[in-house]
Amino acid sequence: MSKGRVCLAYSGGLDTSTILKWLINDGYTVVCFLANVGQEEDWEAVEKKALALGAEKMVIRDLQAQFVKELVFRAVQCNAIYEDRYLLGTSLARPVIAREQVRVAQEYKCDILSHGCTGKGNDQVRFELAWQALAPSVKIIAPWRIEEFVSKFKGRADLLEYARVNNIPVSSTPKAPWSMDENLVHCSYEAGILEDPDHEPPKHLWKMTVDPLDAPDKPYTFDIHFAKGLPVKVVTEDKKEATEAVELFKLLNRIGHDNGVGRIDIVENRFIGLKSRGCYDTPGLTILRLAHIDLEGLVLDSKVRELRDQFCTLSWSRQLYNGISPEREFVENSIIFSQENVNGVVRMMAYKGNAYVLGRSSKTSNLYSEEDASMDSLDTFSPMDTTGFIAIQAIRLKKYGESKIAQGTPLTES
Questions:
Q1: Which of the residues 11, 74, 91, 94 is marked catalytic?
Q2: Active-site residue (options: 11, 15, 188, 338)
Q3: From CA 204, how far away is CA 201, in angstroms rounded?
């Protein structure tokens, strides 16, 4: 009799294949789940392998449209960024994957969820907290935190020996000396030789961008159209055009890839408290974020932008980095409201590792006035009015300076 029905997040790799067989050998019935969030994968081979190892079912779901529309484009609307560098490529995919795994578990009557995340990473936290929000009564098996499992599999050699004994197919391709996680937004590289933060990433490591030194010597130009802060159309210099969300994002990925845009190499602070070195190439989102920030400069009210930056951008980025939460839902509604008037076109150029803004325009915003800003016109804005503005602003500053003098610590001596 089965000990229970488990829905396992399964990639087809050595770790999750070992976990699949270990669960089956321990008496569980296992339904495997894999999300298509834009990664390169031999889907048929993964399904064949899972079923051959004893899975009752291998469920593969295409989540690319949900991923882009619900998470990636929301990140664009709030200019999401973590610790000033990381564009959250891995974090962005986790909520839709976690939600779909719960749906699959419910569909196939599984009362237990399982994953192959290590005990030192962020993903174990993201998935498990999300699962408990999505299905509060769910049970979880996290093998890499079970003493029996960890004691049995102390390294890759133990995994390979278990694979040999249990007839688990193992790739003959030599394993790269780092780990990778790929989706439509980025590819991340960490662990192995990259754990030395001073070790330069090898030239062949990067998968989603060409080396900027090898990129074309000619700039590539294109236009990005926005409506309510969302990208709705991309038109390129060679007449390519995309309007559907996934197609549009893939086109920007291709532009960024070909021109070496979007590489970073950082040390970040994980949710669990450890520092981790990671390399990321994020071509399309790097371009989109720059274009969106630039358009906001033209069409977004300054005080709305200040509040959004202060209370939404950083908060949403950290909330997304950590997972699903009610506070993220609260912040998202503020983000959406702030974008009501973010409409326009940004003209862009990609060239040898960088994206540049060439110009921007909007037919719906009146916040920018060329006449108001012109140094050659006094018709709509009188410089003399500024005298009173400065006088009002100076009231508290004069009192501040006077109090410092009275205290014997004038600001001139600070």
A1: 94
A2: 15
A3: 8
Which of 74, 99, 123, 360 is an active site residue?
123
> For 200-214, 246-260, 262-276, which range has the lowest pLDDT when averaged over its residues?
262-276
Q: Is 94 a catalytic residue?
A: yes
The catalytic residue among 103, 145, 179, 361 is: 179
Q: Give yes or no: 179 in active site.
A: yes
**Residues 87, 295: Cα–Cα separation, whole Å:** 19
pLDDT score for 155: 84
pLDDT (tens digit per residue) in 127-167: 999 999 999 999 999 999 999 999 999 888 899 999 999 99
pLDDT classification of 177: cutoffs 50, 70, 90: confident
288 by Cβ neighbours in 10 Å (0-12 / 13-18 / 19+) ranks as: buried
Nearest to 255 by CA among 290, 208, 199: 208
Question: What's the predicted TM-score (pTM) here?
Answer: 0.90
